Amino acid sequence: MKDLVQRISKNQNYEKITEWTRLISITGLSQLIIQTIGFISGILVIRLLSTQEYGYYTLANTMLGTMILLADGGISTSVLAQGGKTWQNREKLGSVLVTGFYLRKKFAAGSLICAIPILIYLLRLHHTGWLTTILITLSIIPTFWVSLSSNLLTIGPVLHQNIIPLQKVNIKVGIYRLIILILILFAFPWAYLAILSASIPQIWGNMRIKKISSIYADWTRNPDPEIKKEIVSVVKRILPGSIYFCLSSQITIWLISFIGTTASVAQLGALGRLAMLLNFFGSIFSALIIPRFARLENNKDLIYKRFIQIQIGLVLLFLMIIILISIFSTQILWILGKDYSGLEKEMILSMAGSCISLYASFLFNISTSRNWVINPLVSIPIKVITVIIGALILNITTLSGILVFNIFLASTELLIYFVYSVLKINKVQ
């Protein structure tokens, strides 16, 4: 028996299973805490803000997400790919990260110039007063900036799979935000304060993460022209798709903003808030799967094997989530409050669309982590045609119709990225 135990313990598969069990347990527990705190914060915002204020909050958050995508433009993806080649060299990894930050600042300025006027227009379209419009607009700027910084700061520790310190910082950031929300929103239930509350603890969090990152990356390096050239070459291929994604990923909000009421915007935003539950899986995927896929050697059989394993896991996961949401839809809606009761069908459609969108984004991220970027001249026309077809054949004047439309678009993106990933793997020498 002793010899059997020793043989099992020396088995390579056993060691891998043990390692993955440990990593998933640690990361999973941490993410469960982080996402639970985030979910409580989100529900608190929904319940404390009036339907009108939550409508404003949804519009601002939608624009914030768009601004972050535009300011990134594929920079973080390219930095991760470049870092995957130099992750064991502190000086080279520092050059990659510093160069990424240099480019990110320039893109951030352009994103602000483009997005702010649109946000002001949408808020005014929903009869927001000028003072409220200005306060909401100003509140998203610090949140926008700290969100951009945190994406790049985590790359060093993530590539080295030093996840635990990052998780500790994120847990504290979530707790601090929840405390700030409780202290502020009970007395002053206004949208701009709810938005601003996210930036204050994240500033502290970014300082802590940069200190952790400095172990693996030399932040005193100067931007490297050669690395800049490589990052820009990838950005040129990703940016058109990112611009399109900024529009298509939030198309349901855009449509309901123009053709619906503030209450409809609030309902769609509240249902979307439930999708925060998926962030738990998204965070684990980003922390454990993508960096390891980026580090795989150029071996077709190995990459194919890992790719298929990922697909099987994702399909089973998302099917289970949709089934559970369908069974407990009424109970889950109770959490949102009486203003959102009776939306069982819409909630199931919303969660299905979120699962498919997240699946598509996972495929996109594992592809770009190896610098495989689909030509936007191929992907964008297909997606535009899909939007036109969906708008013609589906009823997009109702909330449920908008959600079905979102499922239709997300399914197309999923198919595109899946086929493209398979084609690129087949070309690996």
Low-confidence runs:
none
Helix content: over 70%
The total domain count is 1
Largest sheet: none
* Strand segment tally: 0
Class per helix and strand makeup: mainly alpha
| Tally of helical segments | 19
Query: What is the chain-wise order of helices and strands?
Result: HHHHHHHHHHHHHHHHHHH
Shape: globular
Q: Give the overall average pLDDT.
A: 79
- How many angstroms separate the termini? 45 Å
Radius of gyration: 22 Å
Strand content: under 5%
Report on the architecture of this protein.
The chain is mainly α and 429 residues long. The protein has one domain. Helix content is 84%, strand content 0%. The protein is globular, with a radius of gyration of 22 Å.
Write a short abstract of this structure.
This protein has 429 residues and is mainly α. It has one domain. It has 19 helices and no strands.
List keywords for this structure.
single chain, 429 residues, mainly alpha, globular
Topology:
Layout: H1 2-10, H2 12-48, H3 51-72, H4 75-86, H5 90-125, H6 130-153, H7 155-159, H8 163-185, H9 191-196, H10 199-213, H11 225-248, H12 251-259, H13 262-274, H14 279-295, H15 300-327, H16 329-336, H17 344-368, H18 376-393, H19 399-426
Helix pairs in contact: 2-8, 2-14, 3-5, 3-6, 3-11, 3-13, 4-5, 4-11, 5-6, 5-11, 6-10, 8-10, 11-18, 12-13, 12-19, 13-17, 14-17, 15-17, 17-19, 18-19
